[in-house]
């Protein structure tokens, strides 16, 4: 491959990766999977200068209905977050907004009903990011996100995340 072709390919891949973010730094976002789908990928990159994260999500088909509920905002700025989708629901959307004075985000989760049996074998994983580090969660097929836990640190002005993953 020529050097020019390599540069063009790199720029195209970088632009595609950047375009995957659902928010600009410091800005709100409201991501919802299409009907019949659940979140299967969560990625996030931290910006040290603006002390915020850009987020990306991907969805995949699952046996979920269009009966969904919103959690409302589940955390205060700078405070711990602990959320579990109710009943037989799993994660299908995330909404968030940022406060530049506190340098933190509040989160609202969208959960949708499984059409089949309730989630089972649920486990809280380990941290999926470090303070200021890249966050990456890939949910294997046959599993879904049921909940999330995060804590905020005022020194790093960032959150560390864990997710509850269940068999579906």
Automatic annotation (TrEMBL):
Source species: Lymnaea stagnalis (Great pond snail)
GO cellular component, one term: extracellular space
Heme found in the keyword field: no
Keyword Iron-sulfur in record: no
Name of the protein described by the UniProt record: Dermatopontin
Subcellular location: Secreted
Signal sequence annotation: 1-19
Keyword list, A-Z: Disulfide bond, Secreted, Signal
GO biological process terms, semicolon-separated: collagen fibril organization
Family that this chain belongs to: Belongs to the dermatopontin family.
InterPro entries (alphabetical): Dermatopontin
């Amino acid at each position: 491959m020529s050097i020019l072709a390599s540069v063009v390919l790199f720029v195209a891949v970088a632009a595609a990766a950047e375009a995957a973010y659902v928010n600009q730094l410091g800005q709100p976002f409201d991501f919802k999977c299409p009907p019949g789908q659940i979140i299967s990928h969560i990625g996030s990159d931290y910006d040290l200068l603006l002390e915020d994260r850009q987020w990306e999500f991907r969805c995949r088909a699952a046996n979920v209905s269009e009966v969904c509920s919103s959690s409302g905002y589940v955390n205060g700025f700078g405070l711990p977050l602990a959320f579990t989708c109710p009943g037989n629901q799993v994660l299908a959307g995330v909404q968030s907004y940022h406060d530049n004075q506190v340098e933190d985000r509040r989160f609202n989760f969208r959960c949708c009903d499984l059409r089949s049996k309730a989630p089972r074998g649920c486990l809280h994983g380990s941290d999926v990011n470090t303070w200021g580090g890249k966050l990456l969660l890939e949910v294997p097929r046959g599993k879904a996100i049921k909940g999330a836990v995060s804590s905020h640190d005022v020194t790093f002005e960032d959150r560390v995340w864990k997710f509850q993953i269940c068999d579906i």
